[in-house]
Structure formats: C-alpha cells, structure tokens
Fold:
Amino acid sequence: MNLSDLQAAIALLSAATLADPWLALCSSLAWLDPLITQDDTFLDAFEYPYMDTSDPWMNIALGWDISRRCFPAVYASTALALRSGTPEPQLSDLMCQGINQHLVGGEIHDLEQLHFGLPFFGVGVDLTSPEFFAHPANAPLVQVYDLFGVAVGDYSIPDNFHQAARVAQVLALSLRETDQRDYTNLAWLLDWLFAQTGNTAADYTDEDLYEMGLEPLPWEPAEVEFNALMHSEAAEILQFAYQGLDTLLSDPDLQAALCTHIQITTQAIRKVKHHDFNDADAHRFAQRLRWADRPEPVDAGGANPDFETLSLRGADAA
Structure:
C-alpha cells in the first residue's frame, strides 16, 4: 500500500464514521475532549501529585489534566495548541498564563509548581524578618508593636508576643463592639499583626505553612474556588488593616487611648493563668473597655463586611 492508498483509506474510514450518528458523536467528543478516552489521568500516573520532574512534557501533561478538571477554557486552548504543533516552551508559557488567570493572590512561574498542589500566597506578618519591616509599607507596623512592648524583626519570635496577642484579641473584640468603621479597621490591624484574623493566607507566610507541615490543597474545582475566596478575603483584610494603620498613626488621641487600653488589659490578663485564658475571658475583659465615639468618614456607606474567615486548617486537604 502506497501513501495515496493509505490517505484514501483514512478518508473512507472518516466518511464512514461521520455517516453514522453514534460514531460521529463519539468522534466529536474525542476531538473536543481528547483526555476522555484514557482510563487513568496524568495526575493518577504519579505516585504522589507533588513530586518534582524535569521533563517539560510531563509537566505539560499534568497541566493539561489539571486544566481539564479545573479550567476548561485553558484545556481547550491547550488542545488546540497541541494540534497546531506549538513548541514546548510556548505551550508551557500559554498554560501558565491561562492557569494564572484563575489564581488569586499570586501566580505560578513554571509548570513544575503544579506538582506541589494549589499554590499558597501567604501575606502574614513575618515577625522575624528585618527585610519585611524595611519595606516602606510595613515600617510603620513597628510603631504599633512598640505600643504592646513587642520588639520585632530580629530573627526570632519575641518572648512576650503570645501575651501581647491575648491583649490584642481583647482589644479587637472591644473595638468591633463599637460598630464604627475606624475602630473596625483598627481591629483588623491588630488581628493581622498578631495572626488572629482566622484567614490562613492573612495569618501566615509561605514559610510558616511549610514549617507547619500543612499540605497544600489539591487541584480540584471546589478547592480552587475555596483557595481563591481565601486569598481574596485576605487581600480585603489587609486593605482594612492598612486603613486602620493610617488612622492610628494620624491620630494622637487614638494612640493614647490604645496605649491606655493596652495597659488596662495587660494588668487584667495577668490575673489569669496563661493556660486558663480562653475566649470567654477575652469577651469578659473586652466588655470593660470603652472607646470614644468617632465621626463617621465621608464614605461610611462602604462598611467592612462581616467576614466568614477562611482557614486552610478547615479544608479537607489539611
């Protein structure tokens, strides 16, 4: 059989397939969804999905499978690119860019990152990093820690950090009870500074999660949605926290009131044994604090939402 005969046979088989409605439907399905015909997915082909590989085509295969599960538009564009013979480097870039459009808080730079599960972009305060506090946006945070008597940025967790965190918890509760925007923003600031927002992305850094040994979320549609919501919420928390920081630094009276309440709460907490302190104690101490009324800002209509903070610890993969 020569090449012409082979081409004629292929054309005949194709025409016969398209002439049968059932076979035509199967052919269309296989063209639109190439991976539907394989029993095992590329994810299943690995002993563990977070293994590393230097084979770029294996990374593309994994990204293609992940896209089929989670990002149909990326899956479709990748299938078209494969059929058109797109070179591996361009195909990898195309897949990275497509997946990044669905990630919140950061982006992947190489398909090898897919092997380690959904990327986590921690925006928590790095207490031990001088570089973190050297950043212009973060340098003023040192002043707030100073009000609590906490020295940060010297490569170690301050000894009195956990006691100060309990004080901050009480103050944040009392600030929210005022139901005033400036105070609510200040509460978010205190929560963020002492890793008590309840949102994993806002409370921890990437290094924190690695050291804690928490596994990243798997590449599944529900987990992708959860991950996006968690990082979106973290971004809003930081927005409110920085607004609270601006208000605090620009208002000496508010700074004085905060210092007074820190002293009062610190003295009250010292009467409770460290291991006995609980949420009931925090609420009880918070009820004793009073904050002066503040004028509502011009854009008071955009009040802070009541977050249902999202924690990776509560996810199925954790």
